[in-house]
Amino acid sequence: MGRQGYSAEFRRKVLDLLAAGRSVASVAHDLDLSDQTIYNWRRQDRIDRGLQTGLSTAEASELAAAKRRIRELETELAVSRRAVELLQGDASPKGGTRPSR
User: Fold this and answer.
1) Residue at 10 is within a domain
2) Are residues 49 and 70 in the same domain?
């Protein structure tokens, strides 16, 4: 689903620092992260723990995999349809080939 910039372990350590009472601004400054990144991680953690509504990490991963598979199947279907069109254009209904014009 996007760029994997930081490991789950690193994110967990950042969230543990917040839980220990550190402010978002101080953690962001010390670790050279943006405040918004930390707020996003905290929000997602709350969603994953059921404290806030939203799409959990597992659900988001499953949804991304389903969308990827749908795209693959749509591509396969388009290729199959195009192949049928090409084959129908080359063959007459009686099984022979059409004469060239």
Assistant:
1) yes
2) no
pTM over 0.70, yes/no:
no
Q: Which domain holds residue 39?
A: 1-54
- For residues 23, 24, 28, 33, the Cα torsion angle rounded to the nearest 10 degrees is 170
The tens place of each residue's pLDDT in the chain, 101 residues long, gives 445 689 999 999 999 999 999 999 999 999 999 999 999 999 999 999 999 999 999 999 999 999 999 999 999 999 999 999 999 987 665 655 555 65
Residues 10 and 35 in one domain: yes
Please tell me whether residues 4 and 34 are part of one structural domain: yes
CB distance 65 to 57 below 8 Å: no
